[in-house]
Amino acid sequence: MASMALASLPVSSSSLAAEASFAPQAATSDWPQLGHDAQRTNDSPVQVDPPYCYAWKWDEVPIASRAQPVVVGGRLFIGSMNGAMYARDAATGASLWLYVTRGPIRDTAGVLGSTVIFSSYDGYTYAVDTASGSLAWKTPTGPSATAPLIDDGQNRVYVASTDGALSALNGTNGVVVWQYDAGAPILTSPSLS
């Protein structure tokens, strides 16, 4: 089992900044995306005091070392190197559903409304219903080893790929709004500044 860690690097773009919204995204106990919010602040108003102990433990699948689970509405979502996105009850660890892709999921997912959004190394970004695990949309964005950036205020999902594309997607249907070719692999997750 791999340990959880985060990796993010701010990506600045005038198009990205123009679309940025800094509205609060989730309830204070939720952790809806890498680094908690679109700015990747890793800040939460919830105080967690010792002693620290397991509520539950699950180590049945290989998880990428840079993936962190996201938690929204009492559900925990985490992707795996075996290509599956898992939904589990955050309090008990009970399995809720899984959705299988054709490539490893190498980083953290994000939640936008009632969908969990994640990229796979199979070249697609997926939106899956948080309650049922059914596919809402699937968009070719290139193989990705990074976490999507969720901007719920603008209903946008930003995805960086190892083929050098930074894509802005409509969060409702996955349609590509714009795409930027960096000319080199993008190996860090985008953020808003």
Count helical runs.
Answer: 1
What distance separates the N and C termini? Answer: 33 Å
Question: What oligomeric arrangement do these chains adopt?
Answer: single chain
Q: Any idea what the radius of gyration is?
A: 15 Å
The number of distinct β-strands equals: 12
What's the helix-strand series?
HEEEEEEEEEEEE
User: Overall mean pLDDT score?
Assistant: 87
Strand content: 25-35%
User: Which parts are unreliable, with pLDDT below 50 for 5 consecutive residues or more?
Assistant: 1-25
Q: How do the strands line up in the largest sheet?
A: 1-2-3-4
Largest sheet: 4 strands, antiparallel
Class of secondary structure makeup: mainly beta
Q: Shape, please?
A: globular
Helix content: under 10%
Note down, in words, how this protein is organized.
The protein has 193 residues and is mainly beta. It contains one helix and twelve strands. It has one helix at 14-19, and strands at 70-72, 75-79, 84-89, 95-100, 110-112, 115-119, 124-129, 135-140, 149-151, 156-160, 165-170, 176-181. It has a four-stranded antiparallel β-sheet, with no helix packed on it. β10 (156-160) and β11 (165-170) form a beta hairpin. It is globular. Residues 1-25 have low confidence and may be disordered.
